[in-house]
């Protein structure tokens, strides 16, 4: 999450091409406003929703295409996931219900 935010476009766009074969014009700015479980819970409560279900899913393994860099990513991500019980995994699946 943070890494994507601080990486400049001149690095991000070629990397996304290498990993996903997305054209540079198909890479859009990302706004990190609701990208943590506690932020989703807080914003849901403020707007009249309740969190019915919230799951954190791990990496989509796209970095395995980068060889040793991908292995390092996997090692760090698995360690963080285990230590923090998945709270900082890269994908959030949330079901919200209006009160």
Question: What's the short story on this structure?
Answer:
Helices cover 43% and strands 17% of the residues.
The number of domains is: 2
Mean pLDDT: 78
Number of helices: 4
> Largest sheet, order of strands side by side?
1-2
Quaternary structure classification: single chain
What about the largest sheet? 2 strands, antiparallel
Low-pLDDT sequence parts:
none
Radius of gyration: 16 Å
Q: What is the H/E string?
A: HHHEHE
The count of strands amounts to 2
Structure in words:
- There is one protein chain.
- The chain is of the alpha+beta class and 99 residues long.
- It folds into two domains: 32 residues, no CATH class; 66 residues, no CATH class.
- It contains four helices and two strands, in the order αααβαβ.
- Strands 1-2 form a two-stranded antiparallel ribbon.
- The longest helix has 16 residues.
- The two termini are 30 Å apart.
- The model has no long low-confidence stretch (mean pLDDT 78).
Q: What order do the helices and strands come in, and which of them pair?
A:
Elements: H1 2-6, H2 9-20, H3 37-46, E1 49-57, H4 68-83, E2 91-98
Antiparallel strand pairs: 1-2
């Amino acid at each position: 999450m943070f890494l994507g935010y601080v990486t400049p476009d001149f690095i991000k766009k070629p990397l996304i091409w290498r990993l996903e074969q997305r054209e540079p014009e198909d890479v859009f700015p990302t706004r990190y406003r609701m990208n943590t479980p506690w932020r989703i819970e807080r914003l849901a409560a403020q707007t009249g929703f309740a969190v019915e279900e919230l799951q954190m899913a791990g990496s989509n393994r796209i970095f395995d295409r980068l060889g040793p860099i991908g292995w390092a990513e996997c090692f760090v991500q698995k360690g963080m996931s285990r230590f923090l019980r998945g709270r900082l995994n890269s994908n959030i699946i949330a079901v919200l219900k209006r009160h």
